[in-house]
């Protein structure tokens, strides 16, 4: 069988598979809801048959139906629903996907060639195949020609009948009103028809700009002339404002923005408020009462802020959602009460300098754009990442015609850290750093946090010791233990971690290529243990070897006993006084490894 020759166009609203099945069975797409309900019921009743067909991540058919919302209108179907439909209708279903026909066989189907033929278009849409070409690709099954001939004969009669109805509809006002009432009645009583009308209207409103503008103008005219319609719209707006908190905040913010940006609107509000205050005694009394209540509320709020429990609760409410809102100008991650929705059209109504700054500063780097990997109901799109946000500081600066100092356009954008440097732990970062910062941390009187006291001193670090002395391992996956000390004579250490020499080597090679300060750094690939060389040069006579070994064993025992002690705490108690000089805060490296014997380690201490 060749490629499809002709297909029946199906509405692409997420129900295309069930609409195609409904059209193939009944000749109409209207019954797609019943088809969807029947297919999902088939899957629930025969869970053992379809449990192995589910995609990864679903434990059962019930879990799949609940998570994917397959029972609800608008959810895209998968190959599992096609197989369930084939078993339900006891017929084979053929789908043309990527120039290949796929067959979903039914267990009880007797005829292997008879079935429902569908075409998978654009990876997300199904249409009914009404005619196919023969394998040679030159001719088709002529089903489309037969339908075309029959359609022509039907078209002539239907066209004349349609012309008569149009003439009658245009000349007779009674017929026009009768048809309108009949359509309205069908819209109110037929749920399927109502949903289809809404879907078509939404699609046309979103895609047809002319239709969108015409509908807006009709709505404005109806609101201005139809008092009953105006009352319904006002009541619906009041109800939504009183029940939907998010809608209320959006309306308030829009009103504030319009008052601050639209000078004509601001003057109109002021004039109306002034006239109402001097002409309407009831409005004047209400204004005074609100002012009186606001004054006492302000005093009450001041007294509440002295209560630690109230302050704590307010703080928890503000940080309840976490810092998930990214400013589109400075790219800072902030809380919800620190940002507002960024609407670019607000700045377009301002002066030219504001427009130019807004177009330059506002970015959509962190605005989520749905792609083919997103679900039909993308949770990210409905979250904070689905909207454009701006902090109040950047908003104020832009409206004043100034470039925000924190804007990423001031060369403040943070570039991503390369993987060669991102995977290093704190000790590995110390080993490759040109300078090691020293600072004195003291406990703050409240909050249990630490603060920096005094200046921060950056001590130069000798990278040559790392590139020349750092031990190597026979296997690149092995790691060595490194102690980072403030001074060799100290017993304690600042850090004691495992480091990977290959990671350090890769990081130094990357810095050598991209950082001018590392141009002269050379990594010793032909490494020879310098401690062994020192040992041979300073080796004592044989009669003193035994005594020296005994001392080493004692040192090992002492060191093993001190492993369980908090050496960092001991170091701070013994040498962490306020009178330490700069030369006593230099860091040294103490390396231990299976390849470096204990004697070499003790010499490194000295």
Question: Could you list the spans in which at least 5 consecutive residues all have pLDDT below 50?
Answer: 540-606
Structural class of the helix and strand makeup?
Answer: alpha+beta
Proportion of residues in β-strands: 5-15%
Report the total helices. 26
Q: Secondary-structure blueprint of this entry?
A:
Elements: E1 4-8, H1 16-26, H2 32-45, H3 47-50, H4 61-68, H5 79-89, E2 92-97, E3 100-104, E4 115-121, E5 125-132, H6 143-171, H7 173-189, H8 191-207, H9 209-225, H10 227-243, H11 245-261, H12 263-279, H13 281-304, H14 308-318, E6 325-326, E7 333-334, E8 339-341, H15 344-348, H16 352-361, H17 379-382, E9 389-391, H18 392-399, H19 419-422, H20 426-432, E10 435-443, E11 450-460, H21 463-469, E12 480-485, E13 495-499, H22 501-514, H23 530-537, H24 545-561, H25 567-575, E14 588-592, H26 598-605
Helix pairs in contact: 1-2, 2-5, 6-7, 7-8, 8-9, 9-10, 10-11, 11-12, 12-13, 20-22
